[in-house]
Amino acid sequence: MDSLIPFTTSGALMDCVDRKMLVILRDGRKLHGVLRSYDQFANLVLEDTVERIYHGNAFAESWYGLYLIRGENVVLIGEIDLDQEDDVPLKQVDYNVLEPYHKEDVEDKKHREEAKSQVLFEEKGFSKEGGEGDGY
Question: pLDDT higher for 107 or 4?
């Protein structure tokens, strides 16, 4: 009976080792790489890691190589389907071309979130405590 209960801890990552993964961090960065190792705190080691940024129908990648991620910064981790990865209808461009647009998008999102937080604080009494990235 116990074998039917799914893993809800870092043990669920057992089948993901040596597979290409997408990891989304608390600060919004999206990392793609091969999961090589993890521990009980969900600290991850990714190999051949790239950070991917998006704007409109384009994306760009920045190479990081071997990358260690502290588990508390992971929001989402999922396996990438290699068969469907090539079918994504986005155009790859140079990172330096897309970076200014991406930074502008991040700033716009930050201002929108601050405005929402202010409204929730003033009209609904929600707390404004917490620092950057504590929304998860």
Answer: 107
